Protein: TonB-dependent receptor
Amino acid sequence: MSQILRELTPKQKALKINLDRNIYGTFAEIGAGQETVRFFYRAGGASGTLAKAMSAYDKDFSDAIYGKEYDGRYVTEDRLNKMLDHEIGLMEERLDKEQHAGKSFFSYANTVTTIDYAKKYKGHGWVGLRFQAAPNEGYNNIVLHVRFKENSAQLQQETLGVLGVNLIYGAYHHTDNPRELVVSLYDTLDKDQLEIDMINFSGPRFRYVDNRLMSLHLLRNEMTEAVMFGPDGYNILPADLLYKKNIFAMRGSFRPVTNVNIDMLHSGLDMFRKDHPQITDENLQVLFEITLTNLRQEGEIDERDFLNRADILCKLGYNVLISNYQEYYKLVDYFSEYTRNRTQIGLAMGVNNLLAVFKEEYYSDLSGGIMEAFGKLFKRNVKVYLYPYQDKEEGVLLTAQNLKVSDNLKDLYKFFKLNDKIQDIEDYNPENLKIHSRKILKQINNCETGWEGSLPGDVAAIIKDKGMFGYDEEKCKFIL
Structure:
């Protein structure tokens, strides 16, 4: 049945909403015209659905209605929420509850900027819906951010209109299945038309929704290439967090996070700050990054395993980036979209990760091969901070000074090292070189002891308390 519903055109969806006499609401659209409500007007029967439609184009009028934005930014999540607050407040205030008994109220809003005349900025926007799934229930919220890909303002406006219809229809027909709702946002749309890079659900009908899983759902369905969430588990728009910031990132599996990861982060970050004295807490963003490839290492993505990693990193107070950028140069390219020439990017990595960077087979899809990739990776403002590795078989400490790459890349490697693009982390704890996450995982699964001290803070207690990474308290009690 859901497959048939997803094949409905925007006009058919709008008509179904219009013919449902229990649904009643308002539309407020800023910046790209009244593109969504247009579908409901044209579908017919809108008088039973639309309480009001408006578009406050003039900034002074908009400020008078929703309040002034003192930072001068109007295409923001904060602006969208002010619009939703105001419009729902008016409905509650002006509509007689007895006259509209049995009605489920909603307010749809968007604040958008489309492509500029010079076609330098593609355009983006915030889209949101606040709605009652049933009469007299509390309000639910769906808020998302979109980035337009089309090269015409008119096409972008039409795409926005379809997206809005899909959102409203999905809210009333897929409330009990948020994953289906997310997929339905692209009904009759192509991923070449727009990118959805953030979505958050809240409210009584979504109280069991983990927004981090919704972010993962965006990635898995190729709606975006990277998502981000904060320590509170709430999804964050990458552009808001990274804009004009210096970035220090560390990629890993974090399964689980160990003292090695924390030592690598802190010691690498200390060097990054010393190299760039202009960096302050205010202009720095630290990220833990996990790739989709890493999440799929054990086969299909295990959502419980994903949440285990996310829970621990969030409890340690870090922002987490999940990306589809297996190659580091793509990650740097992504960061560069939001940073500026004067900002710096630091990458903390282990020896194995750096060796993977120097494998030519990863760059066969580039016309310029590994040289093109390195040109993007080792930009003027990018530096790698390398954590050493103790080779147990050879008994050698591997660092940037004695690392061996293929013969045809030796000179290239030497060039980057001599120009301080690759720098050894020197102030590390030698005891951490004995720690290996795979060994710890086996110990956890086998109910062994002694692994707890290899993890930071109270991470071991969290793993035991929540039964993460295969820890089974009952089984371990029996064994021990």
Observations:
- Confidence is low (pLDDT under 50) at residues 1-5.
- The first helix runs from residue 2 to 6.
- The longest strand covers residues 104-114.
- The domain at 2-209 is CATH 3.90.950.20 (Maf protein).
